[in-house]
Amino acid sequence: MSELDKYFQPPTTESDHLAAILVRECLTNKPDTDIRFELRRERDGLTFRPAKISIHFSENDGSEFPSETDRWDGELNRSLIEMGIRSISIDNEKERFGLILRELFEKPEIKAGEPLFSTIFIDILKASGFGERKEVQEKLDKIPKNSDVARYVRNFFGKKSERPSLMQEVEDDDLNSFNISERILRQTAKMIGWRLQKCGSDLTQKLNYTREEAETILAGAIAYYLDERFFITNRELLGFK
């Protein structure tokens, strides 16, 4: 067997991050241990301090192990989700998935550009029902009416009856039948929809939240993402309405 063969075999673990290895060993050797994720992301004026991940371990008798704390790492977070590690609270889970959305939306944002990405995203929220959730609606209502996105919605889509059906399921092969503008719209909408669905399925399938809990968390994550994307809290801190 060549020394190179090992580089062409599946890795023995999903992540080589020390914290992920520690959690995996704990789940294997001490399955009754309660392990919880905590996102620490403190606001510092108009910005945030670097996000950190803390992992808490506690026994059934109430005794606790020292927590593992490290900077936010998308790969580590992904591994923890795959292992079913929930956040310490529903609110913390909202923030966790808010950061996940920020990472997941980077690719479709680059593909569509701004303000088209935000325009499509907002339209999907309103069409999907997320826009009816109180926490999401409050953020949507606070997007400045004279913003580039708001103007783009009016100019690009026009009347609501004239908007393309972005929520319609379209196969990749069928996209060739649309003109380039509508093809970009539909491709971006599909990318956004897939990412929202991925988060929703992670909440129910990986972290075992109920359907109601998962919807509450995902809506909160969307609101968290909107707030930062459109500088809503920052505008309020500066006295803008």
What does it look like?
There is one protein chain. By secondary structure, the chain is mainly alpha-helical. It folds into two domains: about 1-90, no CATH class; about 90-240, no CATH class. It is about 50% helix and about 10% strand. It has helices at about 20-30, 75-80, 90-105, 105-110, 115-130, 135-140, 150-155, 180-205, 210-230, 230-235; strands spanning about 35-40, 45, 45-50, 50-60, 65-70. The strands form two sheets. The protein has a three-stranded antiparallel beta sheet with strand order 1-4-5. The protein has a two-stranded antiparallel ribbon with strand order 2-3. Helix 4 (about 105-110) packs antiparallel against helix 8 (about 180-205) and helix 8 (about 180-205) packs across helix 9 (about 210-230). The relative contact order is 0.13.
Short description:
This protein is mostly helical. The protein is 52% helix and 11% strand. The protein folds into two domains: 1-88, no CATH class; 90-241, no CATH class.
